[in-house]
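Students often ask why inverse folding is considered easier than folding. One informal answer: many sequences map to the same fold, so there is more than one right answer. In these notes we will look at a single instance of the problem. The structure comes first.
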């Protein structure tokens, strides 16, 4: 029997990234995440399967097209609301998508000439990803960059992740893994030999608050980062600074004390201020959200929190 080719599912691939590790990087975003952060700016990363997205700004209206109405075998697409065109000189009739009827077959996306309907989630083999890596390798070599595998949560596609990281190390490419840390330690242990840097998220240090807001407790996350530090991993701790969730003086004192205990394994702490740039992505999935809508922290506020962590002897940057 022929062996099945190993594939990984990705929702985005971004070249020339400069915020996901050292140098110029190729960031690979794998699909699927067990966490449900209410401020998530990439909701398309959450589901593990390929799914339909709809970008209303690209829709030319059923008056000029309407091909998707007949393309759906399940009758999930119907006539929807009206809106003014981008130029403002005509009214367009958009569509509605019944997500309960939609099975993400992609027939409507195939029929959409404007690409307003599109499928999010593409399967790649190791060789296909490596072709892109080889293309960017001259930039890695000159800048000290490499690849960063992110998500979603890439640890939930462990076989592909391990194989990709191993292949990159064989080719002399620097590797980083951007993770929530919410997975079995055995998976982190598998990829540790092939990972030069972990970009590790710490969203909240209180487990009950973590569970109540994000949907999962944090004991596994905190234990895993301690084990990584003890095993000699290099760490960049990432803290999303979320209003009324983890941005208080008291919480940052807890962050400072916890991170300091990780010792020299931590190269830098990166503060990620809350923003609203991903709000439109929730509309593309016909979901209500994000659940959290708050005012982004000011530059002065972020500098205060940066200084607070620096008092613990930590190197801190703001993205």
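Output (designed amino acids):
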């Amino acid at each position: 029997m022929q062996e099945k080719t190993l594939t990984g599912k990705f929702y985005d691939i971004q070249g020339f990234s400069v915020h996901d590790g050292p140098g110029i990087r190729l960031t690979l975003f794998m699909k699927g995440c067990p966490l449900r952060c209410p401020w998530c700016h990439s909701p398309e990363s959450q589901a593990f399967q390929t799914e339909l997205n709809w970008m209303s700004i690209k829709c030319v209206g059923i008056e000029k097209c309407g091909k998707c109405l007949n393309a759906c075998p399940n009758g999930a697409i119907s006539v929807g609301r009206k809106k003014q065109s981008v130029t403002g000189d005509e009214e367009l009739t958009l569509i509605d998508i019944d997500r309960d009827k939609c099975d993400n077959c992609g027939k409507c996306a195939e029929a959409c000439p404007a690409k307003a309907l599109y499928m999010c989630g593409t399967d790649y083999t190791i060789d296909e990803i490596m072709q892109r890596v080889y293309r960017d390798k001259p930039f890695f070599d000159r800048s000290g960059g490499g690849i960063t595998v992110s998500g979603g949560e890439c640890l939930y596609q462990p076989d592909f992740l391990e194989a990709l990281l191993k292949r990159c190390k064989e080719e002399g490419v620097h590797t980083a893994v951007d993770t929530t840390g919410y997975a079995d330690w055995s998976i982190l242990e598998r990829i540790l030999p092939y990972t030069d840097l972990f970009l590790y998220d710490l969203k909240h240090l209180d487990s009950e608050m973590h569970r109540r807001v994000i949907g999962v407790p944090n004991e596994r996350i905190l234990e895993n980062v301690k084990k990584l530090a003890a095993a000699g991993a290099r760490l960049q701790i990432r803290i999303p600074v979320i209003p009324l969730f983890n941005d208080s003086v008291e919480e940052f004192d807890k962050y400072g004390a916890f991170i300091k205990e990780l010792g020299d394994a931590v190269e830098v702490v990166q503060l990620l201020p809350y923003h609203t740039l991903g709000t439109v992505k929730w509309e593309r999935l016909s979901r209500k959200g994000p659940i959290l809508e708050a005012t982004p922290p000011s530059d002065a506020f972020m500098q205060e929190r940066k200084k607070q962590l620096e008092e613990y002897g930590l190197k801190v940057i703001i993205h």
